[in-house]
Specification:
The chain is built from 9 helices and 22 strands. The chain is of the alpha/beta class.
């Protein structure tokens, strides 16, 4: 218990030190809090800037300065008289933020009474501005989907697969949206336990009858969508994304077959090496997948979409920290911070991509092969290599099927990452047992 508290204290101090100097260099007064759950009760007044590191943070009171918070779940019911800088899994805003809000989260929701007095700049999987919510200045969002049912007084810039506009936009909308075939068939977050409801938005662009856009509507997409004439006071400008047929060469049947054979050989070599070096690792992951299939899918979706956002946030924070050292004329330290941060971020991203491309298929392949052999030949099922070979052969064969293969490949990546995450969280396998 003391070790856990120590880790939380260190994490809080690092967060406070970093964000204090980066984001509010002129504010010398602040307050910091850290715990599993941090709550600012109704009627409580925080006179200074507040820095929080927690699993769950709830604001029912008032903060006179800025709020900088890192937590899994963040709920803002009260008032922030300065800026909000938030990073987490889920951010819900029902109260008032007098100035700007900058948020990186899987899901962001603005309730019916939510009000942001400045700009909203956000990134994540989903942004949902409910009817009655208000962004007084600009809204900028990059992610997978956005539902804008509330009001935005000025301009909107979004880059998403799915965009639905039902509210009032005072200025222009500039959007880049996807097509009908670019969305997953299901909402991955519906499998997550204790997750707030996330709307399912159709792929591409939807402009509702209640939408009122005071300026121009400029959007880029693989296809055009219906925009009601009475919804836009300015001009509607559509730019189609095209792929030149001349530049896309279709592989021959032999080339396509060899590509899948090469994939199978690569996966087998990596899987056999992994089983040889760490014999119990893949079987334990397979057992995790068998015991918790739905949580594996849910947590896998969270990690799948959340890791890229986290890496971007960490790199941006490192660059800002380096800029701060540069202002203090610590030139060598500034360069070292940028170099190390970019190197670590790049290495982590490469590792994450390799996990998605190879390890997830090995995990799911072994799981499938082991389940089949247990029914057909329990003796062969006791040998890890036979289960691995059979499962990988089936996985590669299914992935080779047009259209269906892409969906299966995506599900395998999410489920495999989820099994890894759950195993890590549960600390189920001691180091000496894995080896």
């Amino acid at each position: 218990m003391k070790q856990i508290r120590s880790h939380k204290t260190v994490r809080l101090l690092v967060l406070m030190s970093l964000l204090l100097f980066i984001f509010v260099p002129s504010a010398m007064a602040f307050e910091g809090r850290g715990d599993d759950t941090v709550t600012i009760e109704a009627g409580e007044l925080v006179e200074d800037d507040l820095y929080v590191s927690a699993n769950t943070f709830v604001l029912d009171g008032t903060i006179r300065g800025d709020l900088v918070v890192a937590a899994s779940e963040i709920v803002i019911n009260g008032t922030i008289e300065g800026d909000l800088l938030a990073g987490g899994q889920f951010v819900e805003i029902n109260g008032t933020i007098a100035d700007d809000a900058r948020i990186a989260a899987s899901a962001i929701e603005m309730g019916e009474g939510a009000e942001i007095g400045g700009d909203l700049i956000a990134a994540g999987y989903s942004l949902h501005g409910k009817s009655g919510s208000l962004v007084s200045n600009d809204l900028v969002f990059a992610g997978f989907q956005a539902l804008l049912a509330g009001d935005v007084n000025e301009d909107v810039w979004v880059g998403v697969n799915s965009l639905q506009v039902n509210g009032r936009i005072g200025g222009n909308i500039t959007a880049e949206v996807g097509g009908d075939d670019s969305a997953p068939p299901v909402n991955p977050y519906q499998f997550m336990p204790n997750v707030p409801s996330i709307p399912i938005i159709p792929s591409g662009l939807t402009v509702g009858d209640a939408a009122k856009i005071g300026g121009d509507f400029n959007y880029r997409s693989p296809k055009s969508f219906n925009v009601p004439d009475n919804a836009v006071e300015g001009d509607v400008d559509f730019t189609q994304e095209t792929v030149s047929v001349d530049t896309v060469s279709q592989p021959s049947t032999g080339q396509a077959v060899w590509r899948h054979v090469r994939r199978f050989i690569t996966l087998v070599l990596i899987g056999v090496l992994l089983v040889w070096l760490v014999p119990n690792f893949v079987p334990h992951l397979s057992e995790q997948l068998k015991e918790k299939p739905v949580p594996s899918l849910g947590w896998g979706a969270l990690v799948y979409f959340g890791v890229p956002v986290l890496i971007i946030v960490l790199i941006v924070a490192a660059i800002l920290l380096a800029s701060f050292f540069g202002m203090l004329q610590f030139g060598n330290l500034s360069g070292a911070v940028i170099f190390v941060s970019l190197a670590v971020g790049f290495a982590f991203m490469v590792a994450f991509v390799l996990v998605l491309l190879y390890l997830t298929k090995i995990i799911v392949g072994y799981f499938v092969g082991h389940q089949i052999l247990q029914r057909l030949s329990p003796t062969l099922a006791d040998t890890t290599y036979w289960s691995l070979l059979l499962g990988l052969l089936l996985v590669v064969a299914v992935i080779a099927i047009p259209y269906l293969g892409g969906l299966v490949n995506w599900i395998i990546a999410i489920v495999g990452v989820g099994a890894l995450w759950l195993l890590w969280r549960s600390n189920k396998v001691p180091a000496e047992k894995i080896a």
